[in-house]
Design goal:
The protein has 144 residues and is α/β, with parallel strands linked by helices. 25% of the residues lie in helices and 33% in strands. A six-stranded mixed beta sheet has the order 4-3-1-2-5-6. Bound molecules: zinc ion.
Amino acid sequence: MITCRKTYLDIPFGHRQPFHDGHCKFIHGHNWSITVTFGCDERDINGFVVDYGKLGFLKQWIDENLDHACVFRKDDPLLDTLVNAAPEAWKVFLVDDCSNEGLAVLVFEEFDKLVRAETNGRAWVTEVEIEEDSKNSAKYAPKF
Ligand SMILES: [Zn+2]
């Protein structure tokens, strides 16, 4: 397998950890970065694992789901109260786990599906690293 990597920088979105006993329970935001590692066994006609210029579908997924969103856990006990108070104030993205780690798994699963579909199975995602800031990050790289 050969790999290549692309990073999406400064994606602003918020989240909160409803069951945390510290400040993570408060709604707050980060300028997140997502680094995706792609893999394949057979490169394309240009010698690429993936064509960086043809990954707009990943940027589109980020723009539609994460950019300027608030990422809530589906089981957040305050979800309805917060969102219903001013629905027009929120771009809500619901997930099972809004931690750095949970988002790394989610983005991996979404991007892997998209990349496999776009390349007819020739390429895939091997790893996703998500950074909420310059100090804290999580990486998901399941074994195949
Ligand atoms: Zn945070």
